Every structure is written in C-alpha cells, then in structure tokens.
Amino acid sequence: MSIIEEEREPCRLYLITPPRLEPRAFADTLKAALDAGDVASLQLRLKTEAAETADADTIRRATEILMPVAQSRDVAFIINDRADLAAELNADGVHIGQDDMPCKQARKIVGPDRIVGVTCHNSRHLAMVAGEDGADYVAFGAFYDTDTKVPKTRAEPEILTWWTETFVVPCVAIGGITVENAAPLVRAGADFLAVSSGVWAYDQGPAAAVRALNRIMSEEKRSK
Ligand SMILES: Cc1ncc(COP(=O)(O)OP(=O)(O)O)c(N)n1
Ligand SMILES: Cc1ncsc1CCOP(=O)(O)O
Ligand SMILES: [Mg+2]
C-alpha cells in the first residue's frame, strides 16, 4: 500500500439533486435523506428538459431553500456549472465540466476557500491537468448506464485505483451508481461516490438508499 493510500479518508457519499425539482417539496425529501446517514456534499444540478443549465433565478430560488437544509447538517452545498452563482450565493463550491469553463477561471471567480470540482470523464490526462490547475477533486465517469445524463465516456474502476495510488487530490466516481453496484467502486479506491437517481429513485426510498450506501462504504475497503 502506498503512503498516499494510507492517508486517504474512507469513501463518502456525494449526492446530486434530480435535474428538475420543486424546491419546497424536495426539501422534505432531502431532509430525510441527509438525516439518514453520512453525506459529504450535495450538488444542485438543475437542467432544462433540453439538458441545458437552468436559468439563474431557478438556481437562486432552489439554493435559497435547499442550501440551509444541507449546510445545517454539515453537508457541503455545491452548485453545478455556475461559478458566478456559487460565489454570489456563498455556496461551498462549484462543479464544472470540460464544456463549462477552465478550472483556473472557476477558481478566480469562487476564490481560494470554495471547492472547485472538475469533470475528467475517463481521461488520466484531463485529471492530471485539473489537479495541476488546482481542482479540489476530479470526477471520473460514467461507470454504469444512466438515464440522468448522456455521458460522453465510459470509465473503468481501474482509473480510480490508478488515481488514488498516485495522487492526493480526491477522486469522485459518477454515473449510474446504485446500492447494487457501488461496492466495486469503493474497492477500486473512489474517495466519493456521486449518486443521483440511485438515491432519489431507490425503491425503498432515499433514506434507505443513504443507509445502504453508507453500510457498503463502511464494509468495503480499498483493495490493498
Ligand atoms: C461530481 C460530478 N461529476 C461530473 C459531473 C458532470 O458535469 P458536466 O460534464 O459539466 O455535465 P453536467 O452535469 O453539467 O450535465 C457533475 N455534474 N458532477
Ligand atoms: C452528471 C453525470 N455525469 C456523468 S453521469 C451523470 C449522471 C449522474 O446521475 P445518476 O447517479 O442518476 O446516474
Ligand atoms: Mg456542467
């Protein structure tokens, strides 16, 4: 086991909101999910039916209602796509994709004290560039089929192992992750599992999904 692996924290849950929601109604669902177990962060990822980023006022209203729910439970609130709104609304960070903006530009906007996460698809090169450019985490995916987004690439768990054996920057696994298929990604070394429909559409409810995923994360350890 490398020295880097010895210092890594256990894998934690990173929730991503449904792409469309009514904030007041969703707040009750979110409270139940966050009160069910350990969740590191929540990403507000609002999209139009055409998969474009939702308008600023929609993001502002959802943040006004949902960010206190998360932050009052020590769950970091991350806004997707819009570094300007993450700064304006004093969110804990922003997630940006390769088509959104460069990492350094997002950093300029949100400052040194907020999280900047970067989509790296299945690319070792993109992840190394993001790490060099000051990303607080790199996100690899999609690991499984998903209906939430049409992902550009398919990633294999080995990229999580390679990353965590080599770099200190945390890595996030995303794409079609569910209670049933999460364990191999934890074993492969993911620092966070980013989950959306696997929690919100779980047949026994979001709280049960959080409990089940927490159990898997505590039972499965990184492969030596
Ligand atoms: C944690 C995490 N990883 C990847 C993504 C995807 O971001 P992006 O490629 O910009 O695509 P959209 O989510 O904006 O459709 C993410 N949002 N979060
Ligand atoms: C945002 C994103 N980026 C790659 S796959 C994906 C969708 C994540 O949602 P789900 O967990 O429902 O597959
Ligand atoms: Mg994006």
UniProtKB/TrEMBL annotation:
Protein name: Thiamine-phosphate synthase
Gene3D superfamilies on file: Aldolase class I (3.20.20.70)
Binding positions (4-amino-2-methyl-5-(diphosphooxymethyl)pyrimidine): 43-47, 80, 119, 149
Gene it is expressed from: thiE
NCBIfam families, A to Z: thiE
GO cellular component: cytoplasm
Cofactors that this protein relies on: Mg(2+)
Organism: Parvibaculum sedimenti
Family that this chain belongs to: Belongs to the thiamine-phosphate synthase family.
